[in-house]
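Q: Start with the shorter request: fold the first protein.
A: Done. Sequence, then structure:
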Amino acid sequence: MTIKHTVAVSSIPVGCRTYSVGEGSEAAFKALWHSAKSELPSEFLQYVQHVLFSRHSPTGDMACFPCPLREQEAAAALKALEGCAAAAIADVRCMKRGQKISVNLETVTCFLMSAYITNIDGLDKSSPKVKEQIPDTDLNQAQSNLYRRLSAGLYETRNPGEYYHIHGSLEATTTLNMIGLPAFLPDVNDYHQCINIIEGAVKQFSAAELDALNQKYRQAGVPVLTSARYQRSAHGRTMTSLPLFTVRPLGQHTPPMSLPMTADGPSQCLEGLRVIELCRVIAGPTIGRSLAAHGASVLKITSSQLPDVPFFQVDVNTGKHTTSLHLKDPDDLAIFEDLLTTADVIIDGYRPGAVAALGYRPEDLAARAAQRGRGIVYVAEDCFGGTEIGAEWAGRPGWQQIADCVTGVAWEQGWFMGLDEPVIPPFPMSDYGTGCVGTIAALSGIYRRATEGGSWICRTSLSQYDTFLLSLGTYPADVQDKLRREHDPRFFELRHNDSVDEIGGRALRSMKALHPTLFVDKWMQSAYSEGFGGTVAWPKEPLEVEGLKIGHVRPTRPNGFDKPTWEDWEKDETLLNV
């Protein structure tokens, strides 16, 4: 395992080599595979010495985000382990190749802010005009105006110094009404006025009272804990018994299932594999996007009656087909049943129990798979984790900001910014990190199905990723000082109650000024998307495995764009040669 420098060391400015992200990635990678060893096929570990962390500029080796935690290193390590998994699966398929696995550090950094730099015809998430090219899946109008968007936010409670994150990002009305506010305030459009109104309402309650309300109304929300308090909580104590992800046998044994053969032989390690993705927002769909980058046919199934954040689809639907089925409708259910008969992998990104309530418990799906004589791999990603051991908060709903708040990540960000209050970190980096973890878990299950047989259930969560991230520690004091000196002072004016859009927007402007080399076309790929009616540009895959092609053979599209079938999928292999 080495760091590959593709620029001369002498070209690195004096004073910039006190900390190396590449060396930090090596350390994170070692910590990762040691901690996950119990869940990994031993064949994956045969490749750990063949990993290279490469960069093409001094920026690639620098801590870039205005954050204290080692997000770049964690993601690079996860991508490296994903590469080891892909190499081992290629061996099972007898694909001739070399052994080198390379992770590009600049592209890893771009990947972690993908939702903010992916664009349609140059229009990114922040552009009002981009909405004209994206179907409106914000069915509950939760994103329709500033006041409703801020129903998802971190606010101080009645008790000074106590904070709670409410989360109405997909269902603002329930959250606002829950704290005594009207669903709409059409005359209120000022950012700080909206914050003051919502925080004023939150301050009528303690964290315990808000928690009780959230559970009563089935909303996402958590008290904002330090890492130490999380580890002392009943849920946190229970979660210490779990690794970053788990991979367990599920149901009856079936014979080892070789991966499907293709006419010309596969160029991608998962070519021919069929994946059903039942997910929304970012973390779960990132698993599907990554499996698609390894050649799997990923069919994302959403319901036209369930909301989703519109712009995120531009980012996470890359490489997939997307279709709409409402599983409470008998006709749609029959189509879903037909799709299931030949599916190899199911990704479940909903709150634990939601898919099971529709009649699709993992155990029941494994029993069906046993009847057909070919196992399945069930991949479950959620917020809190611990479903397999009955952890206290396992069944609660949640999203990235919820996990960052409950595990201690938000407090670390606030302290780094010189505050005695928590702040949500910029960009949905925990979402992407969790997606990487889920991908490794899925690849482990796929490998075991191919070599040992049977069905497998793979589980991970946003909270488990955050716990791994925190275990890597914060940056050394001198690195944190440097980040505070060099980033835009306006970023450090942010407070606990600033929105994720405000935090992400200021961080992005600072990153563009400080690290312009990250925002050049070299790190991006583009293709015309029929579904979005424009040319979409998105970050290239950070991972290379010698002798394999990693990338997407179809551009992104909106939810529900394609017919619900496995047949006649379009494929543009020229996209793999970029």
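Q: Next, the second protein, separately.
A: Sequence, then structure:
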Amino acid sequence: MSEEQEFFEKVEQELTKVNDFYRQKQTLFQTRLDNIKRQQEIYDTMLGEELEASALMRTSSIDQGRAMFSRVAAGSSGNKQREFEPSTQLRAARNRLKSAMLEAYRGMELLKNYRVLCYTAFVKALKKYQKTAGWCRGTDHMLGRVDGCYIATSERLNAMSAELEGMFVSRYAGGSRSKGMEKLRVSAGGGGGGSPSCVFRCGLMLGASAPLIARAVYEANLLANEDRVPYHRQLLQLYGGIYLILLFAVLFSLNIMAWARAHVNYRFIFEVDPRDYLDSWQFLEISSVFVLVTSCVFWANFGLHIDRSSYICIYVLLGTLLGALLLPIDVFYWTSRRWLMRSLWRLLLSGFYRVEFRDFFLGDEMCSLTYTFSMVLVFGCASANHWSDLDDVCDTTQWWSNAAFLMLPNLLRLLQCIRRFLDSGDAFPHLANGAKYASTIITIWLASANRIAGGTAWRSLWVASAIVNSCFTSLWDLLMDWGLFESHSKHRFLRSELKFERAWVYYVAIVVDVLLRFFWITQISPSFFSFGHKFHQATMAYIAAVLEVVRRFLWNFFRVENEHISNCGQFRATTDIPLPFNLPKPQDEARVAAAFRNEFEHDYEAVSVASPRIPNSAPPSPPLAP
């Protein structure tokens, strides 16, 4: 076979593959559009039934009074629509339908981009070949094949998009095409740098925070010597727990920045709204604001020499931070804050919700903030004892309840693993992953027993368990979470596809991750690992907590990258939003419609026996999906 023939046969194979894939996805979106259309018709029918039932109930509630009847009869249909409030179920159905339309439109736009990209690639490749080989006849024939292929000639996808646009504009944008298209279109996103003003603000706030933190720590050391604030140790621990979360937030903004530049589709992975989300610089700016506010309060707490009443500052800070995060008002990035609150709620009720990527990812992040969880106990004890005699009363490291707080994030992750096994039926990897968190829980419990009860036996059990746990978690990080050590990979000890350009960062991350997984060894002989310097036990614990946050920061890069590569391998780029109504089989529609209509009749017949019934001419309406 000649090289020319081999080249053109390869082009023909790829063209066939692209056409088949495009047809398959186009058919998928046609099916989704048909389902959405049918569901929208059902919603319109049910809304009309509720509107009519509401009007009948209002009429009969005045005992057929003429004044009320005349007012309703004289009112326009628009006024009735404005006064009518749909049921909670219908409002939820409307939100689902709207989300399904937005996601379907986004998928169609992605498929359009795929079509344009593939067509352009074929044309450029053939013209480049023609220019290099100088063979025009075969290339012209192949160009004609490309121009006449399905992806170049089909207008079906454009018609589907136009139909969906019209449906969305008429029902969810008040008939305004400009408003409707503004909601439908998705910004390209990307890894471009932030605006100069945003970069300046972030640098200014973080730079101003550094001397405030340094001065506050210096003043705290003076207070330790002068004994003017007897609870300064507990205050430092509380501020340290807050700063861990803020450090996590600042580092996570760098994660987002790296994913965007490497074209990792983190928005799809975390299931955030691609039309309304925080980019890396916005996330960093919010984190910088919180860091600056915390640093100002931290400095005021120790630098203004308020002495005995300075603990009030910690209450002011916690109230400010929690208020800014939880305030249910559509200001200050409300949609992003709502996403976070919903995710935290799903994490707190692990086992009751189907587990998505954002759920177990957030659970893993919480596992690296166990120090902050333990500070909840310190804060509660200090408040209960009115911030007096805390060194004697609030040594929480000797409490078994402290171990419970430390185990809580891993317990939630264990419940998530069990739920994933029950949903999928796959023992591996879900039960194996659950065993990893179970081993961490056992290690934490043995470490607490060694600290509280002491003795050689507890110490030996803790060390043995910690070794097994560190080996288990390190291997899981590298093999399962990061997908490294792939067989026959072109990158030694890594995997074939890498989204980050420099391979050496993977090798550095492997070494750092394993070393930090074994950092607990420093607790066996603190004086040896501190090179003769004496560090307080609380200081060593905080250093370990900071290093764990850094380790999780590195872990985030490659965990999300590996998920992105898995999505690409399985051609996952859109989410199939569950539609609100269960569509019954045609033979069951009459029975379902009768049951649904009887429910409405019962509602308004209870108001007045004399009220007329809803006409039976409406199409059957299926029940809402759970």
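Q: Describe the second briefly.
A: Residues 53 and 600 are 7 Å apart (CA to CA). The longest helix spans residues 3-60.
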